[in-house]
Each structure stands twice: as structure tokens, then as C-alpha cells.
Amino acid sequence: MTKSVASSFSHIEVKKSSSFQLKLKSVLKAITLPVLLLIACEYLVRAGFIEPYLLPAPSSLWQTFLHLWQADLWMHVWTSTWRVFLGFFIGSALALMFAILVGLNKQVEAFLEPSFSAIKSIPSLAWIPLLLLWLGIDEASKITLIAIGAFFPTYTNTVAAIKGVDRKLIEVAQVYRLKYWQQVQQIILPAASPGILTGLRNSLSLAWMFMIAAELIAATQGIGYLLSDGRETSRPDIVILAIILLAVLGKFSDSIMKAIETWLLRWRDVFGT
Q1: Which residue of 92, 123, 139, 211 has the fewest C-beta atoms within 10 A of its own C-beta?
Q2: Tally of CB atoms within 10 A around 61
């Protein structure tokens, strides 16, 4: 009995060790390319192959970060972040509402789908002059532009997910005599949830891109403003630092969405799907 217990503990320890090694290898692989790029940039700048006014040495970015942080960097980050999440919430909420209507009703689809398909093809920059004329240079125009960017990935993925629900599931619901909205609530939306959540993740990523377009014009705060200010003052270190901040914030927000997606779809592990 004692040997069996000891063997079980030993097996658990081996599995933990193996899992840790796999995670460590995964992390090392992920950071290999960024580290090599940083080393290459540092060498090329220090050796004089690239002028510092074109590309600053990576080691000098830390001083720029500290200087900006002591000023008002946190305010720029906060301003961009709340703009992104507010625009994402508004755009994705409207997208879910319209997508459910279009996905469930062919008559509604005939009215809305052609118009949405045409609007989806309009580039983000084309909206800016019109939004500035209608809403001015205040927050409303920026939030609206971000909401437009967040709308279409959620809308497109949700419609496709609803239409892709297995008809056998609906037939089972009819056998159990579920009412129409019971079928929607208990069968169709849960079955379509993987596609819906994928659309939400894509919408959040696109919201960050549209935020930059919104802040590059008529903004006094935000990461997009830092990009514009760095360009106008010939400060590539500020521009690169702003780009790094965007990458970090975008990755962090996507990780949050991925964790939410994993939690909401935990039923797939139970059913082995």
C-alpha cells in the first residue's frame, strides 16, 4: 500500500515536472525572435550602420519610458484603453443584436445584409471626415469610429455561427417541443457561442486599430497622440515606444478575452469537443 502511494506521488511529480518543462520551452521559443531582433538592432545602431535618429538603440528606450512615465504616460494609456473598451462594448453589443436578427430571420437578412456588406467595405479613414463634421473633435467621434470597427467582426462571425448550427440539434429541440425562443436560448446560441466569441476577440483587436486612426486626428491624449507627437518632433524613440505599448496592451486584452472564452466554453471539455 505504501509503495503504491509513493508511486502515485512520484508519477504526479513527474507529470508536473514535464508540464513545467513544456511551458518553459514554449516561453523560450516565443521570446527567441524578439530577443534576436533587439540584439540585432542594438548592434546595428551602436556600430553605426543605422543612424539613431532613424532607429534608436533598444537600450535607450528604457530612459524614454521612464521620462514619459514621470510625465503623463499613464494618462495616455488610460485614455486609449477606456476609449477602446467603450467603443468595443457599444459596437459589439449592437453587432450581436443585429446578427441574431439576421441569422434567425431571412426577411430581416434580406433588408439588412446588403447594406451591412456595403458599409463593411468602407475603409476606416473614410469615416473620419464625416464623423468630425457630425460629432466634432470631442470623444463622441472617436468612440463612434472605434464602435464601427468593432461592429463588423462580431456581426459577421455571429451570423455565420448561427447559420452553421447543426440542423440535427434543432430537430432534437423540436422533438422535445421547445418553443422558438427556447430553441434560440437553449440550443442555437450555445451551439454558436464558439464563433460568436471568436468574433468578439477579433472585434477587440480591431478596436485597438481603429483607436489609433481616431487618435491620430484631433486628439490631445492617448497612444495615437504619442505616435503623432513623436512623428512631428522627429522622436523615433517615442514612436517605437508607443508601438510597443500598443502590442503589450493588445496582447493583454486579447489574453483576457481568451481566458473568458475558455471559461465560457469549458463545457466543450466535458463533451470532448
Answers
A1: 123
A2: 17
The 3 state secondary structure assigned to the chain is CHHHHHHHHHHHHHHHHHHHHHHHHHHHHHHHHHHHHHHHHHHHHHCCCCCCCCCCCHHHHHHHHHHHHHHCHHHHHHHHHHHHHHHHHHHHHHHHHHHHHHHHCHHHHHHHHHHHHHHHCCCHHHHHHHHHHHHCCCHHHHHHHHHHHHHHHHHHHHHHHHHCCCHHHHHHHHHCCCCHHHHHHHHHHHHHHHHHHHHHHHHHHHHHHHHHHHHCCCCCCCHHHHHHHHHHCCCHHHHHHHHHHHHHHHHHHHHHHHHHHHHHCCHHHHHCC
Q: In whole angstroms, what is the distance from residue 143 CA to residue 151 CA?
A: 12
CA pair distance 28, 196, nearest whole angstrom: 32
Q: In sequence order, what are the residues at sequence separation of 6 or more whose Cβ sits closer than 8 angstroms to the Cβ of residue 214?
A: 83, 128, 141, 142, 145, 146, 224
| pTM summary value | 0.83
Tell me the HSE value of 116 on the side-chain side, using a 13 A CA sphere. 20
C-alpha cell at 13: 511529480
| Mean pLDDT estimate for the chain | 85
- Alpha-carbon gap, residue 207 to 153, rounded angstroms: 10
- Could you tell me if 54 and 234 are in contact, meaning their C-beta atoms sit under 8 angstroms apart? no
Tens digit of each residue's pLDDT (9 = 90 or more) over 90-132: 999 999 999 988 988 889 889 998 999 898 888 877 888 888 8
pLDDT beyond 90 at 265: no
